[in-house]
Prior knowledge:
Layout: H1 14-36, H2 56-71, E1 80-83, E2 87-91, E3 96-107, H3 114-122, E4 127-129, H4 146-152, E5 157-162, H5 166-171, E6 180-186, H6 193-202, E7 219-226, E8 235-238, E9 243-248, E10 251-256, E11 262-264, E12 273-278, E13 284-290, H7 295-308, E14 311-317, H8 319-324, E15 328-330, H9 335-356, E16 365-372, E17 377-378, E18 381-382, H10 400-409, H11 420-427, E19 435-440, H12 448-469, H13 471-475, H14 478-482, H15 500-521, E20 526-528, E21 535-537, H16 538-541, H17 557-563, H18 580-585, H19 594-609, H20 611-619, E22 630-631, E23 635-641, E24 649-650, E25 652-657, E26 663-664, H21 668-686, E27 689-690, E28 694-699, E29 706-712, E30 718-723, E31 733-735, E32 739-746, E33 755-759, E34 762-766, E35 771-777, E36 786-788
Parallel strand pairs: 7-15, 13-16, 16-19, 28-36
Antiparallel strand pairs: 1-2, 2-3, 3-5, 3-6, 4-5, 7-8, 7-11, 9-10, 9-12, 12-14, 17-18, 20-21, 22-26, 23-25, 24-27, 28-31, 29-30, 29-32, 32-35, 33-34, 33-36
Helix pairs in contact: 1-2, 1-6, 2-6, 3-11, 9-12, 12-15, 19-20
Amino acid sequence: MTLPEKHPAKGSFLIIGLLLFIVMGCQKDLQMQRSLQSPATTKNAFGKPTVNPFSIRNIQKAIQSIADSQQGPQHKTIVTTHVTSSKLVVSTASSTTQYPTFVYFKFSPNDITQAQFDSLQNDTSFQLMDIPFADPAIYSDSTLDSTAIEQLKDGNIYAVAPAGDAVAASLLTASNLQPQVLDTLVEVPYTDTTLQSAALRLAGFSPSIFGICLFKQPHGYVRYWDQQMNNGAGQFEPVRGMQVWALVFGIPINTHTDGSGHYTIPWLYNVGTIMGTKAVNSRVKIMPFDVHGTVFRNVYTLIAQLLVGSLHIDGWVSTCTMRDGKDFNFSGHTQVRYWSQLLNAYYFHDQYCAQEGIHNAPSSMVCWACWTNNNSFLNGQPDFGNSVTPLAGHINLGGALVGYLTNSVFGGNLNTASGFTSLIQVVTGSILPDMIFNVPQSTEPIFYNSRLAQLAFHELGHASQYMQVGDAWYLVLADELFGGHSVPENPYGDGNYAAASHVSLAESWAEYIGTNFAIRRYPNGVKLGTSIPGINLMTYLIENEKYFYGDSWIPSGLYNDLADNYNPNEPWDNVAGATIQQMYNTFQPSITDWCGYANRFVNNYGGTFRASNIWQTFAAYNITCGISFFTSAAIVNQPVQRNNCGTGTGSVVNVSVPASMFSSLVSQQDADQQAQTYAQSVANSTGTCTAPPYTLDYVCIHSYVFQLTMTNTGTNQVYTFHLNPTPTAAVACVVPQGTYNITITDLSNTAITNFQVNTCGGSVSQSAINFSATNVSLNCSSTGIMFFF
Length: 789
């Protein structure tokens, strides 16, 4: 509901109205108190209201009393009121004002029809509760808590709807519902402070309610406790997309939390009210199915529960609490915390699908959150039951769905209980399940948060895949639910039935994408490895191809092998870098088995990832499709010389290459040659290079012999040469690459001077009897050093 229009008789801005109320309210309220004769006896600070302050009768009296007090008895203004289908019209000599009206009624849900149930589910203007939430009595008790709320339940459903609403009008004439109109309520804008004050006093509220916390707007956060967040230290995690509601004496005002779990109710309150949450939004409707306990409890409370929906009544909230911020923090093993986790799963599923460029689950989903008996165990503790995604709200599953719900969701003995037929009729209407989860009521499963997230992402992965393959393809999966193919080692059966290829494609993808998305939320999260004993890190399981029911015919590890980097422990996995979008887009309505999927992936991406490598990866999961390919033989400690040293000399490296690391669609020779090429690349990247030696040139214009001494500064190796006069035959002066200290000595003692050495680092000259130079570099591409003397 949006902010209402301001009362035409009041100021244009809220701040003006507030100032007038503060400055003039005391004197005016004293006059009004004498006129209205408020009850003097109260039970608490709020008084004991005898009627709902916003009841139409009370509002009409308040309007007249205001007119009397403003004009005085001798000059009474004539005030007339009448009710249209949805408005209270107030007319005076100078103006006409209209206020929206609401009908407050109750009915018995026991014999409700599917059409009536569906009309209530589809009319979002209703507020439905199983307590008398617009009765004045509950607004006289500021200690309203969960215990008191339970005591107010009497088996009826209480409703508030806009007056004139067609659905409400129809229900009020339905004899099977035993409807009873309890009141007509008037929505008085919060800016009309005078009328609100008069209505409250006439209803019996004590003057003490007018304190310092007037006209406060509820705001705050909705969170749930998640022990596995914050590296296992736990934290209150924001709930995204949760509806938060507050009542204006029965008239509902609501909003939704944003991406940080924050909400702001679009209304200002001058007295406290009842607030709560509901796990519904435009994306998904969470439907609570509290089916634990006895058959009697299941049948006779479930329809009422479904009408109310995933409603959490938090209790009374004062205006001072609204001022400071009203947070909803859900902890413990409760249904509302369970609903919060599912809402977050939908939110993050949509985020991650958008990041990967794939379809998210369809819109307007209905999610059954079953709260069950202990029908599954892990290590002796109650554990999750079956979870499924029938998409019954989007696909016509036919009569088989009823049998599944009867036997698997509600329990086979329910079909003999009174009221069961009505229950089945209700649930096969507007709330057909798109997804069903089962969580034990008595005990929280171990590592609850990450495991429930992975489970939800798995089921949402099915719904996302449906958007790619369409109705007819997905409808075949109904055989998974209703075919009874389970075997002791695998609940999906042994793969020998008509729908097995669809089941294999669907379950493998859902498990992969569900685990991939869950790891993003819980990097250290754990889940149960169905074929690996105990609880394991999800990051370990996604790398282990055999964890999902033995991977006997549902190859959940295939997609990760296409996406991840090469693992030396998996020589068949030579494809790396396939994206989720590429793997997802390979699914098509025409792809009904693994060979169809493999061929389409090869056709689309064989040039990117090499077709033979793709087939080799598929073959690791027994998906060969008649394609012949060859794999390379092992190379064991083969000496391979580095061959990319240019003019230098490469070292020899012993290289091993595991068998089957390379493949070819051409020949064995081609596969082996790929292995040899790879071995050479290993040698080239790990071997060393020895630079070629330097040959030194010299020019001796004298007729004497000189001695050249070169000391390598790195190895301290000394090289000595006698340099003959040119053009006498030159002496071969060869030294390795390096840095040297050089001396040239005149062996004949002729006192020759003017030595010069040209090196790759520059020129060194000296006029001395003997020549010396330090740190002369030969570490360059020059062929040597030229000596002139």
